[in-house]
Amino acid sequence: MTTTEINFDGLIGPMHNYAGLSAGNVASASNAGAVSQPRAAALQGLAKMKRLMDLGLTQGFIPPPRRPALAALRGLGFAGDDKAVLARAAAEDPVLFNNACSASAMWAANAATVIAGADSGDGRIHLVTANLSTMLHRSFEAPDTFAMLRTIFGDERHFAVHPALPGTQHFSDEGAANHMRLTAQHGARGLNIFVHGASRGSRNPERQARRAGEAVSRLARIDGFHTLQSQAAIEAGAFHNDVVAVANENVLLAHAAAFEDRDGLLAAAARAVPDFVPVEVDSITLDDAIRSYLFNSQLVTLPDGTMALILPGEAQGNERVWKAIETIVAGNNPIAQAIVVDVRESMRNGGGPACLRLRVPVSDAALGGIDPRFLLDERRWAALCALVERHWPEKIDSRDLPDPALWESALAAHDALDALLRDI
Ligand code: SUG
Hints:
Blueprint: E1 3-10, H1 26-30, E2 35-36, H2 38-54, E3 59-62, H3 70-75, H4 82-92, H5 94-100, E4 112-115, E5 125-129, H6 136-139, H7 141-152, E6 159-162, E7 179-183, E8 190-196, H8 210-220, E9 225-228, H9 231-236, E10 245-248, E11 251-255, H10 262-272, E12 277-281, H11 286-292, E13 298-301, E14 307-312, H12 313-316, H13 319-330, E15 335-341, H14 344-347, E16 357-363, H15 364-368, H16 378-391, E17 396-397, H17 404-422
Bound molecules: N~2~-(3-carboxypropanoyl)-L-arginine.
């Protein structure tokens, strides 16, 4: 029985904008107020998906939830028809309204934590929806994400989709971005590493609580390995572990200063995975790592068994970082090529190639249990491109978020997406 790792990318929604909502996320804060390009953003994301399909990998997608987040605003007491709800929220609480306009669900690495069937207590693949409770705009995602994951992975013989953990700071959970799986190969038993944030306080918010990883481990009935991000990484702006480390099968690629207890982590990995290959980088600063998103590349196994790094263009733009990449590719490890993709619109909000995807390892039987509408082939991919070309706005100036014409066009784009999903 073969096991395939599927990358499910978040389709970037029509409201993609730069409102500077993520404190501690250097890119989001520094691009606050810039003009976004939702159409170009979504097409960049789709081009990345196509690049992976062309490499012979299985690619899925997760549709964006409706934004502005009408349901969340109604839950907070704004009443009337859709237009009235939005107009009231925009007038009465503009900050809340901006939060309800974010297209942040595009970063599918924060949708859920995925525990492989080879590891879980009941042999099913477990997806624990992330509560994203630290950031207001992101916390609005959880109910929609849970519903969407139940649609895509509704076959309970193979999948167990869990709702989000309680949305308190004690369980703040940002999903797969803070989880790594090391294993001899996707289908074998693996070591599940949960990386949590500052326990000693930081000027940046703690976005992943240790208790969240412990709860996920209990829900999926695994022995998780829990480890702390280094203080230096947190202070440099590594708001998720996946901006300083990435794992794939038996390889861990990480900045040498990513973890507080590096030695303990490497020893546990070597015990769990006999042919474990650590690839550590100490030739660039944490600052360079976070600006270039070298470690936010996707590390994927190609059909020929070698691995490729799918990097953001920003990593090519920095000479020191590019040198480090050349050293990695030339080194004695399975990483054989570096492929650069343009996800600039997402990068400007702090989301690189790895943020945009949720990895799900599936057996052939579980693959058959996935709702096929969300697995891409040429035809579906082209249909999504045509939809975006036709309905996604070209530009959004975040100062225009209160403009009813913008909501109308975004909601019309979502209607068109819903119609497409009925017969894609
Ligand atoms: O949560 N940016 C996201 C970026 C998430 C990146 N994901 C991973 N590293 N896996 C965040 O900080 C900015 C949105 C805004 O400012 O409008 C934002 O939410």
